[in-house]
Amino acid sequence: AKATGRNRVVTFAPGMAEAVLDRVELAEDLTAAMAAGDQLSLHYQPVVTLPDGRVHGHEALLRWRHPTRGPVPPLKFVPIAEQTGAIGALGAWVLHRAVADAAAGLADGSGPSRVAVNVSAVQLADEGFVDVVAAALAASGLPAHLLVLEVTESVLADDVDAVCARLQAVRDLGVRIAIDDFGTGYSSLSYLRRLPVDIVKIDRSFVTDLARGGSATTLVASILELARSLSLDVVAEGVETPVQQVALAELGCSFAQGYLFGRPAPLDTAARALQLD
Ligand code: C2E
Ligand code: MG
Ligand code: MG
Ligand code: MG
Q1: Which of 59, 117, 118, 122 is the best mutation target for the ligand 1 pocket, counting ligand atoms within 8 Å of the beta carbon and taking the most?
Q2: Residue range 35-55: mean pLDDT, rounded
Q3: Were both Cys, which of 60, 151, 244, 249 would link to 98 (CB 3.0–4.6 Å)?
């Protein structure tokens, strides 16, 4: 006991220093990737209507193929980009790319298509965000009502009034707002009434538990009821089985997304899959 407090060294848990270095290296490599241009791309996953499973639109999902590590998942590099501030430029690139693809007919080239783009709370905290969205729409010519911006409940951690005002400004352009991963955050169902949103995306975890009996069915039913009373559309995320599809349709859920209907894929693959339908 006498020795404690003297000659103490800060010790890292095994692997901790490596993890920090790893993040620093990834942050540097991401900057290089943004300059290089050919490592970053968008994949698109279909959003379908229920019960029929017809394609309604697509969600853009960012992909990074690192020159030596291979694919790095967005859940790993997006938080790094948020910390370094790179998310501003990266998010603007995603927005421009996605609306340009959608304006060009996205999957089948028959005309402008609906597209959903994920937006980080850090992007939304920036004063210039509304201008970035307006500029992307203007450059592409995509009608604003075909664009959905997906935000998570984490945006509520910031200045709620400022965030709501900015979301409303984007909505005033005609863009629709979705709350992503709904049910996983700290906000209550009633919080939804305060947010200027149009769409609720039910998190995959609840969809996974559907039809197993238990609280997931009750929870999904109450989200649907609340959404109906607020005239919001509902998209169920992560639908992987026909049983889940049927359960959601029976509960009255109008839209779904998941591996059952299509995995995220590059544009040429998504286009081929649709043409085969
Ligand atoms: P998200 O927006 O909730 O996207 C859904 C995630 O679930 C995607 O993972 C998608 O590939 C995956 N997914 C879709 N259907 C299924 C399914 O049936 N089963 C399973 N197990 N997974 C499914 P991904 O592409 O790895 O993206 C993860 C998260 O990274 C996204 O979650 C989103 O929060 C973030 N992200 C992706 N692209 C962007 C972006 O351009 N900007 C920002 N800020 N975040 C992004
Ligand atoms: Mg999303
Ligand atoms: Mg989601
Ligand atoms: Mg999610």
Answers
A1: 118
A2: 94
A3: 60
**Mean of pLDDT values over 131-146:** 96
Is residue 81 lining ligand 1, measured as CB closer than 6 Å? no
- List Cβ neighbours of 217 (8 Å cut-off, separation of 6 or more): 210, 211, 247, 251
pLDDT score at 276: 40
Residue 118 Cβ < 6 Å to ligand 1: yes
3 state SS of 216 = helix
Half-sphere exposure of 196 (CA within 13 A, CB side): 17
Find out whether the beta carbon of 82 lies less than 6 Å from any atom of ligand 1.
no
β-pairing, 147-152 vs 115-118, is parallel
Q: Which atom of ligand 1 is nearest to the CA of 81?
A: 44
Helix or strand run (H / E) with residue 57: strand 55-66
Residue 277 has pLDDT above 70, yes or no: no
User: What is the residue type of 140?
Assistant: S
Q: In the chain, what is the straight-line distance between the N-terminal and C-terminal CA atoms, in Å?
A: 73
pLDDT band at residue 1 under the 50/70/90 scheme: very low
Query: What phi, psi does 201 have (nearest 5°)?
Result: -105, 115
The yes-or-no verdict on residue 275 having pLDDT over 50 is no
- The rounded Å distance from CA 180 to ligand 1 centre is 10
Strand partners, 65: 71
Residue 164: in which H helix or E strand, if any? helix 160-172
Q: What's the pTM?
A: 0.91
Which ligand is nearest to the Cα of residue 207, counting in written order? 1
Question: Ligand 1 atom closest to Cα of 181?
Answer: 3
Both tokens of 40, joined, read: 């970053």
Q: How confident is the model at residue 256 (pLDDT cuts 50, 70, 90)?
A: very high
Cβ of residue 244 lying under 6 Å from some atom of ligand 1:
no
Tell me how crowded residue 38 is: count the other CB atoms within 10 A of its CB: 8
